[in-house]
């Protein structure tokens, strides 16, 4: 059973930073891709950033230049460093992984990020 545990959310002022963590219950080398998504109230869940098996990254336009996705193989953990946060970044952030290309995604429970103006 794949489990993803997120942490690091919270309340921060605009311009501040947060680092989200997502610890996987399986060996990170068995994961095809890891990503962060977010869902704001009344909006659809959207991709923020993802990280492929070989290290390729992809960012939403809203995240480029401010957010960085990375991983620690020894800890089976993926991170999302968020800088220069804006009120519009307020959302529940979810970690997601796929084991194989095109496979079903596994989701974490989500962590709330609130950015005050």
How many helix segments? Answer: 0
Instruction: Please give the number of β-strands.
Output: 11
Mean pLDDT: 95
Q: Specify the structural class.
A: mainly beta
Give a short account of the largest sheet. 7 strands, mixed
Rounded radius of gyration (Å): 13 Å
Distance N to C terminus: 40 Å
Kindly report the oligomeric state of this protein.
single chain
Which band does the percent of strand residues land in? over 45%
Q: Give me the strand/helix succession.
A: EEEEEEEEEEE
Query: Which stretches are poorly predicted, pLDDT < 50 over at least 5 residues?
Result: none
Q: What is the helix fraction of residues, given as a range?
A: under 10%
Which term fits the overall shape?
globular
Describe this structure in words.
- The protein is an all-beta fold.
- Helix content is 0%, strand content 51%.
- It has no helices and 11 strands.
- The protein has strands at residues 4-7, 10-13, 18-24, 33-39, 46-52, 57-59, 67-72, 77-82, 91-98, 106-107, 111-116.
- Strands 2, 4, 5, 6, 9, 10 and 11 form a 7-stranded mixed beta sheet that branches. Strands 1-3-8-7 form a 4-stranded antiparallel beta sheet, with no helix packed on it.
- A hairpin with a 7-residue loop joins β9 (91-98) and β10.
- The chain starts with a strand and ends with a strand.
- The mean pLDDT is 95.
Topology of this structure?
Elements: E1 4-7, E2 10-13, E3 18-24, E4 33-39, E5 46-52, E6 57-59, E7 67-72, E8 77-82, E9 91-98, E10 106-107, E11 111-116
Parallel strand pairs: 2-11
Antiparallel strand pairs: 1-3, 3-8, 4-5, 4-9, 5-6, 7-8, 9-10, 9-11
């Amino acid at each position: 059973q794949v489990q993803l545990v997120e942490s690091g959310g919270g309340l921060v002022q605009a311009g501040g930073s947060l680092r989200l963590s997502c610890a996987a219950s399986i060996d990170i080398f068995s994961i095809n891709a890891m990503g962060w998504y977010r869902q704001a109230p009344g909006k659809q869940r959207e991709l923020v950033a993802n990280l492929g098996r070989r290290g390729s990254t992809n960012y939403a336009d809203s995240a480029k230049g401010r957010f960085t996705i990375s991983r620690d193989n020894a800890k089976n953990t993926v991170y999302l460093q968020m800088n220069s946060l804006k009120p519009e970044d307020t959302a529940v952030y979810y970690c997601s992984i796929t084991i194989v290309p095109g496979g079903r995604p596994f989701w974490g429970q989500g962590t709330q990020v609130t950015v005050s103006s």
